[in-house]
């Protein structure tokens, strides 16, 4: 009992120390400075959705002859989670890209949770709208909690989305993992100490199973090709999610990829894996010729 109290006190102390300053996001000025160092043109734009404001960072200028990649982060997260891919010169040379702060994170209404997957889909589709008309193809790339959101976007607008790449998606409502530390964002006594992105993440997690249950019977109707990638050493989002996709998504248009010995954070720690998957999808869409 004493050990539990000591651990709890330690966690509370850590949360109290970081809670006021840790927001898991990169400022506009920092984004611009970082990309100027690698000579990649970007723009930071704010998009209105209903009465809310959403931030996106996108490559600039846009090339209408190229496809556009949309990066959709998980929970918690922000659009800087894909920064290594956004800076990659090979991707930059063959595709436009957009990375969005989802509602509740980054500079998109930080701290105000939007737990509805359907509403997250609708908000992101309004961001995508101009690119549907100005790109040769549109590919959605969703990581973790962003995976089912990306696929829900494809359900909602199958005619204008060409491919979905899900990276370690939490999409099976029966294998959702809950972590003790999340209680600190739930308990009234400690919630105020927890950084806002972690509060939003916990709010999403508490609603996530019900949200996934509402959609699960519709995945079989998905008309957009899907590439699902999952590491078999994922301790955060169980590898069993890949089995769920295998059973519930159309087999003829779904490609399943197992990453041996890889955990959940590979989009950040091993961006080369995601890069090669993106390049493969683009080749299959015939949007560019592979460079030697």
Describe the fold and architecture.
The chain is α/β, with parallel strands linked by helices and 292 residues long. The chain is 40% helix and 17% strand. The protein contains eleven helices and eight strands. An eight-stranded mixed beta sheet has the order 1-2-4-3-5-6-7-8, sandwiched between helices. Helix 6 (146-156) links the parallel strand 5 (138-143) and strand 6. The chain starts with a helix and ends in an 8-residue tail after the last helix. Residues 4-22 and 287-292 have low confidence and may be disordered.
Q: What labels describe this entry?
A:
40% helix; disordered C terminus; globular; alpha/beta; eight-stranded mixed β-sheet; 292 residues
What is the topological layout?
Blueprint: H1 2-18, H2 28-36, E1 42-49, E2 52-59, E3 68-72, H3 83-86, H4 89-94, E4 96-100, H5 117-134, E5 138-143, H6 146-156, E6 163-167, H7 188-191, H8 196-215, E7 226-231, H9 240-248, E8 254-259, H10 266-269, H11 271-284
Parallel strand pairs: 3-4, 3-5, 5-6, 6-7, 7-8
Antiparallel strand pairs: 1-2, 2-4
Tell me about the biggest sheet?
8 strands, mixed
Shape: globular
Work out the strand percent: 15-25%
- The helicity comes to 25-40%
Could you give a short description of this structure?
The protein is an alpha/beta fold and 292 residues long. It has helices at 2-18, 28-36, 83-86, 89-94, 117-134, 146-156, 188-191, 196-215, 240-248, 266-269, 271-284, and strands at 42-49, 52-59, 68-72, 96-100, 138-143, 163-167, 226-231, 254-259. The N and C termini lie far apart (62 Å).
């Amino acid at each position: 009992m004493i050990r539990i109290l000591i651990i709890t006190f330690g966690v509370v102390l850590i949360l109290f120390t970081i809670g006021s300053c840790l927001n898991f996001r990169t400022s506009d000025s920092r984004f611009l400075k970082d990309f100027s160092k690698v000579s990649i043109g970007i723009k930071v734009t704010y998009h209105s959705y209903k009465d809310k404001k959403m931030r996106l960072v996108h490559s600039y200028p846009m090339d209408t002859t190229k496809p556009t990649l949309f990066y959709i982060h998980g929970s918690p997260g922000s659009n800087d989670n894909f920064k290594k891919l956004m800076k990659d010169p090979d991707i930059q040379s063959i595709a436009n890209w957009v990375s969005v702060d989802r509602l509740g994170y980054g500079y998109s209404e930080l701290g105000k949770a939007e737990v509805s997957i359907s509403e997250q889909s609708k908000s992101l589709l309004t961001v995508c709208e101009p690119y549907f008309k100005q790109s040769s193809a549109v590919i959605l790339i969703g990581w973790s909690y962003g995976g089912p959101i990306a696929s829900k976007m494809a359900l909602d607008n199958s005619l204008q989305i060409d491919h979905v790449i899900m990276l370690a998606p939490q999409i099976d409502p029966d294998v959702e993992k809950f972590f003790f530390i999340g209680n600190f964002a739930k308990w009234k006594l400690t919630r105020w100490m927890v950084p806002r992105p972690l509060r939003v993440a916990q709010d999403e997690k508490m609603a996530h199973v019900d949200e996934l249950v509402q959609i699960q019977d519709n995945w079989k109707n998905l008309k957009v090709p899907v590439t699902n990638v999952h590491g078999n050493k994922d301790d955060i989002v169980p590898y069993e999610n890949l089995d769920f996709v295998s059973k519930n998504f159309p087999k003829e248009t779904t490609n399943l990829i197992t990453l041996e010995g890889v955990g959940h954070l590979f989009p950040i720690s091993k961006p080369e894996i995601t890069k090669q998957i993106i390049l493969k999808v683009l080749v299959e869409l015939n949007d560019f010729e592979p460079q030697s």
